[in-house]
């Protein structure tokens, strides 16, 4: 698939109406990094750090993590890499971590909730990230923020580690950007302060959709029941876009839907200007984006919403068929 789109690699994802959509890739292993050059991605929009923790029999050591993170930044050759701190619990369980039985793990003790209650592991991870950056820019993103204070507290932990590393005489990152993943509907309604405090926000569409429709992403009986192009979900996305643009907060979308061409197009039509996806999706998404007039897609979506269509998929497909033929 990569080969087929190779001629697009160095071209921007620019619509016929002149809107440029930034396309980054998701990663989680050192082995993913060669795809950065191969796909022409702008950077790594989501580096899932839990894979190193899941692949080990014990908590990885700080020095080993710092080495790995430094190699990832090195391989990115100056392109930004957004490291998401440990996102465990729910579907991602560490074999060596004792945790309580939970009636509903997806709604349970996971991600930032664990990190704030038992900060030891995240502090170690933050130290590793700071040491890895040493003189380079560092982008850190906290997963599963569901209320403003969780972001404040996570950020305070990071600030404390920066201060500690400084006192210990380690080189600090050249620049620090601290973001939040928006994965629960609650954050679309967060105080304005949240959008001001975050250096950037990334929509975790997999979880956001699961919680918006109350449909377990792991449950085959319901996981495909609700369309991402459901009018209500796109209205939620539009609301988040508007709240971020009010405060000038950079926004991206890093769930799996970003890598599906029609979904990527509709997210762009709702105002997203940065998407992060599996490397193999970059070619197909770029190919479609470069052939469309986004304002026409947007109009088709708004008309479908006015008509009361449950999903805008039919309207968008019809619009595309007209446009591309
Ligand atoms: C998401 O929830 O959309 C996301 C990107 O994170 P993960 O799939 O790792 O939960
Ligand atoms: Mg998630």
Automatic annotation (TrEMBL):
Coiled-coil stretches noted in the UniProt entry, renumbered to this chain: none
Organism: Palleronia sediminis
Subcellular location: Cytoplasm
Gene this chain is encoded by: ptsP
Lineage, top ranks: Bacteria, Pseudomonadati, Pseudomonadota, Alphaproteobacteria, Rhodobacterales
Similarity comment text for this entry: Belongs to the PEP-utilizing enzyme family.
Protein name per its UniProtKB record: phosphoenolpyruvate--protein phosphotransferase
